[in-house]
Design brief:
alpha+beta
């Protein structure tokens, strides 16, 4: 029997903000109801990747030179498709400087 795709998972849209106001809009899966913790873990993964990998992405380059990054939950969206669509809308609205296109 074929298994249906999950559409009941919560996704968190978040913003990372640097000391100079540079920002990044991202999306991560919610770990239960712990939305701030989910975003904190995702932020730590961004920082780890910036340090360990030689990616030439705007966010990675930025994280290598700042000492502090703030994160905040923007929205919680149910369903993967809806979350990805809303992420694109937010990126278009907010125009974050650290999202590579």
């Amino acid at each position: 029997m074929l298994r249906r795709k999950r559409c009941d998972r919560n996704y968190i849209l978040y913003e990372l903000i640097g000391p100079d106001g540079s920002n990044y809009i991202g999306l991560t899966v919610a770990l239960g109801q712990a939305y701030n913790k989910s975003v904190k873990i995702r932020t730590q993964k961004h920082i780890s990747r910036a340090i360990k990998e030689n990616k030439n992405w705007s966010l990675c380059n930025y994280l290598r030179v700042v000492d502090y990054i703030e994160y905040r939950v923007l929205e919680v969206i149910r369903g993967r498709g809806a979350a990805y669509n809303r992420e694109r809308e937010l990126i278009a609205e907010i125009n974050p400087v650290l999202n590579d296109f």
